[in-house]
Automatic annotation (TrEMBL):
Domain Phosphoribosyltransferase: 11-149
Key word Acetylation present: no
SUPFAM superfamilies documented for this protein: PRTase-like (SSF53271)
GO molecular function, one term: glycosyltransferase activity
Keyword Magnesium on entry: no
Protein name: Phosphoribosyltransferase
InterPro entries per record: PRTase-like, PRTase_dom
Length: 164
């Protein structure tokens, strides 16, 4: 098992405020925050409040299937956002981590022909990422245990015994 970095709820608040401060200090004024589900939903929501941006969209991308286990390529899951809703807007794409960078690359490509400009914000980025996020709270090479995803799913009793 790879080494882990723990990310706490207290750090979550600190990180989202710091990322929002980076955005403001850069002069970028997003019209829309686009949270990548699922990991980017919580930071996108917190940053939308911090940036006083009421337009918060989501896009659902599946890539990771477990710790350091992923599909060959990231895949958008339905319902897919109507890219025309982003026409000529300044869009801040938000995710929890830029690990390989392929998810951010997919979402930026999806937006490219519609938006005025995109920028990216992540809680963590890894040096190997093919996308260098515009805004990042911290860099790491470790697997990150986020408080919203570090515990196993809660299932119904019938789900737990189905394979027995």
């Amino acid at each position: 098992m790879a080494a882990h970095e723990r990310f706490s709820w207290a750090e979550f608040g600190e990180a989202c405020r710091e990322l929002s401060r980076q955005v403001v200090d850069s002069g970028f004024r997003p019209d829309v925050l686009l949270g990548i589900a699922r990991g980017g939903l919580l930071p996108a929501g917190a940053m939308a409040y911090a940036l006083d941006c009421k337009n918060l969209f989501t896009i659902n991308v599946e890539f990771y299937t477990g710790e350091d286990a992923r599909l060959d390529v990231p895949v958008m899951l339905p319902p897919v956002l109507n890219a025309a809703d982003l026409d000529n807007l300044e869009v801040l794409i938000v995710d929890d981590v830029a690990d390989t960078g392929k998810t951010l690359e997919l979402v930026e490509a999806f937006c490219a022909d519609h938006v005025a400009q995109t920028r990216t914000a992540v809680l963590y980025h890894k040096p190997r990422s093919i996308i260098r996020p515009d805004y990042s709270w911290r860099q790491t090479e470790l697997w990150i245990d986020f408080p919203w995803s570090s515990e196993p799913p809660i299932t119904r009793p019938s789900d737990r015994t189905a394979g027995a």
